Structures are given as structure tokens and as C-alpha cells.
Amino acid sequence: MAQGGGTAEAESGVPAEPSRAAKVSFPTLTSMVVGSMVGAGVFSLPRRFAQESGVAGAVISWVIAGFGMLMLAFVFQTLAVRRPDLDAGVYAYAKAGFGEYLGFFSAFGYWASACVGNVTYWVLIMSTIGQIAPALGDGDTVLAVVLGSVGLWGFFFLIRLGVKEAAAINRIVTVAKLVPILVFIVLALFCLRPHVFADNVHGAGHVGSLFDQVRGTMLATVFVFLGVEGASVYSRHARRREDVGRATVLGFLSVFAVFASVTIVSYGILPRERIAQLRQPSMAGVLEAAVGTWGNAFVSVGLIISVLGAYLAWALMAAEVLFVAAKDEDMPRFLSRVSRADVPVPALLLTSCLSQLVLVITLFSGDAFDFALDLTSALSLIPYLLAAAYCVRHAAGAGRTAPGARRELIVAVLATLYTAFLLYAAGPKFVLVSFILYAPATVLFAMGRREQGRPVFSGREAVIFAVSVAGAAMGVIALALGWIHL
């Protein structure tokens, strides 16, 4: 990850020498994957699932999500080994498979999803503190936004200290934030009430059919698994290339066990309807019902540590994607400027600016946290779909003679089908809102092409641009007419 303190080179725009890039070990790569995934989402799982599903639907959802995301993890593992020349994972794979413009879309979508996701962290922190400071509300008051903004820019200056320092901090925080989550699972198991769990099996109340329950929880599972590709994003910094794939799979399996456990044990503490009405972070409310008020405080402190660690990891990954896209001349050159300590300061600054903008927009949203969470998931789906589809193309083409090519092709096809199902589960609302962000972002692509003296679009790219503009127009009309709401 290209992060560090600003110096003269940040102003001159001269890239730092590759030899100066920090190299990270297998444990650090694994902690980056775990740290990226274990953030705000896990603390919101009880309520998100209880609003949509009973125990049966939740189990099926986790089986589908676990299998699908494992296929995606294998996709990133495969591509890290088969295409070691490609850095920044998601973006690089989309470009290699489907051209520069779709590669740009993948880079922007991945980056934008990280920026929106970062906002959920500050909203949830403020909502947590709001339990004892009512002026912060649910994290969507003016005071909450002001304090969140202070934290956002504080991290901007912290990350400029450098990748070695930031990665070391993330590794320590990853261990610290797993402790309260594991304690929650153990205590909830000891306090589990079998009759309550049994009543929640099929989802008492109106939760719809089993299919509707599963579909309703899909975006929540995507959000908590965002970051599964974390090691591939940092691939240019790995000491050994094979560590990238190993860190991805090990990190995924670890957090999958944690996420599924947090969700299922909660159904044994309170009736589904009561869990669905808990204030976020709902994990705190569940533990309070199990062991008393100290459980709420314990989870709340763990949440703040967890979210700050996840924010650090995601700010790192978001800036890296913009930086590599600019170095490949798919975004304006100013985003490829780095400091002597290997920090892409302009990319990091633009990341913080978009997060700041979205944080302000939460003041006008009906449910700031849930909307930002779902939008984050939806924005990430197109980059994931393109990466999986590229793995299919590679395994069926240039990589078909490699050992294990048949297995890699099957895995890639399954990962592609899974991400396509997620787009269906997201529904038209979030797809249209995503287009509202994608279409105007093309100005960055156009700036890059103009700097190179090239036409902005080829024939096929012009068609893709027209489709994105049409989707954005439909999204704006749907918002204006009240067909969809923020």
C-alpha cells in the first residue's frame, strides 16, 4: 500500500522508486484481510438479519454467502498466482479482461464503495456514543457529522505517516477488536435460551417466504465480507506472491466463522421481533439482554476499536486503487503523485473528500446507516462480477493448459453466478443509485484520455457510456418522482 508522510516528491509528482515500497509479511497480509472485513457490519448483524429472517433463513443465507464468497476468495487466490503481473486486484483484473473503460468503472466502483463504507463507520461510532450523548442521535445529527468529520481528517494525517506504521497499527487493532466479538459469542452461548431459539427458527411474525428471507439478507452478507480481496489489493507489497492467496483464504475462513456465529447465537437471546427493533449496534443490545448493562458497554467499546481499525484498512485500500489506476493512465496523472515515503497523497485526499461529502449527505437520509451499508454493497458488486468473469475468461483461454485449470474454471463460473445473483438481490433501487455515481465519474476517465492525446471513447466504450448515462437518468427520475428513496 502506498502510504506515508508527505514530502517534496508529493508536490513534484515524481513517483517514488519501487524499491522504497514497503514489503509486508504473510501475517500482516492476513491481518489486513481480517481487519478489512471485521468492522461495522458484524456489530449490526443481529438486527439486520432479524428484520428479514428467522434462524432457518439465516442459516441458508450464510451457507449461500459463505460458499459464494469462498468462491470469490479462490478467484482472487487463483488470479494472484496466475497473473502476478497485475497489481491492485479488482481493478487490474477488470481492465485485463474487458478493456480500459470497464476497468475504470471497476476501479471507481470499488473506490466509491470504500468511501461510502467508511461513512458507515463514523455513523455507527456516533450512534454508539449517542446512547450516552443524545445530541449525537443515531449518528445523523449535525454534531455527529462534525465530530465524524474531525475523526475522518485525523485519520487522513495518520495514514500519511506511512504504510509500515499504518499496517502495524492495523495488525494490533485487528487482534484487539476480535476479543470482544469472541467474548460475545461465548457469553451468548452460555446464556442461550432454547425455547426462544426454537420460536425464532422459522421467523415468528411477518418475514415472508424462505426465499424472500434469504434475498433480504444478501446485501448485509456482502457488506460484512467486503475486504476479502484485501491481500490482492496490496499484492505489490507482498514479500512473497503466494502469500497473497493464502492470506485471502485464511482471512475469509476466519471471519466467516465469526460472522455466522454472531448472527445465529443472537436468536437464542431475544425474540426475533425484539432483535429487529434494537438500536444499532444491535450486538450491544443482545448482550445487554443476556448479561446486563455492562454487556452493552463492553460491546460498544469493542465496536469503536473495531471500526477505527477497519476504517484504517479501507482508507488504505481505497487510495491504492486510485493510485494504481492513475499509474496505468486510466485516471488523471495527478492521482499518481506520491511522496518520498510512497504515499499517494492526492488519491488519499480525494478519498477523504468523497467520504466527507457522503457523511454530510447522511443528514438528509431517512436511515443513514442502513442506506450507506446497502449502497456500499451494491457499488462493490460490479467490480466483483468483472473480476470473477475475468477469471472465467482466463481459465477458459490462456490458462486452460495450466495444472488445475478445470477446477479453476468451475470455481470462477460459480463465483460469477453468485455475484450475478447478488445484483438481482440488490434490486433496481441500488443499481440505479450506483449508476448516478458511475456516469458522472467518467469525467476522470476523460481527463486521463485527454492527457494522453487519445480519443475519449472507442466505439464499444461509447455504447457502455450511453448505457451508464441512461441508468443514471433513470435513477434521478426515480428519486425525483419518489419511486425510490435514500
Count the beta strands: 0
Quote the beta fraction. under 5%
What is the overall silhouette? globular
Q: Describe the biggest sheet?
A: none
> What is the helix content?
over 70%
| Global structural class | mainly alpha
| Distance N to C terminus | 33 Å
Radius of gyration: 22 Å
The pLDDT mean sits at: 79
Low-confidence stretches: 1-21
SSE ordering: HHHHHHHHHHHHHHHHHHH
How many DSSP helices?
19
How would you describe the overall organization of this protein?
With 486 residues, this protein is an all-alpha fold. It has 19 helices and no strands. The protein has helices at residues 8-12, 26-37, 40-52, 55-82, 89-98, 100-129, 142-159, 163-191, 194-199, 210-225, 230-233, 242-266, 272-276, 282-291, 293-327, 345-361, 368-396, 405-451, 459-480. α3 (40-52) crosses α14 and α6 (100-129) crosses α7 (142-159). It is globular. The two termini are 33 Å apart.
How is this structure best summarized?
74% of the residues lie in helices and 0% in strands. By secondary structure, the chain is mainly α. α17 crosses α18.
Q: Strands, helices and their partners?
A:
Blueprint: H1 8-12, H2 26-37, H3 40-52, H4 55-82, H5 89-98, H6 100-129, H7 142-159, H8 163-191, H9 194-199, H10 210-225, H11 230-233, H12 242-266, H13 272-276, H14 282-291, H15 293-327, H16 345-361, H17 368-396, H18 405-451, H19 459-480
Helix pairs in contact: 2-8, 2-12, 2-15, 3-10, 3-12, 3-14, 4-10, 4-12, 4-17, 4-18, 5-6, 5-17, 6-7, 6-15, 6-16, 6-17, 6-18, 7-16, 8-12, 8-14, 8-15, 10-17, 14-15, 15-16, 17-18, 18-19
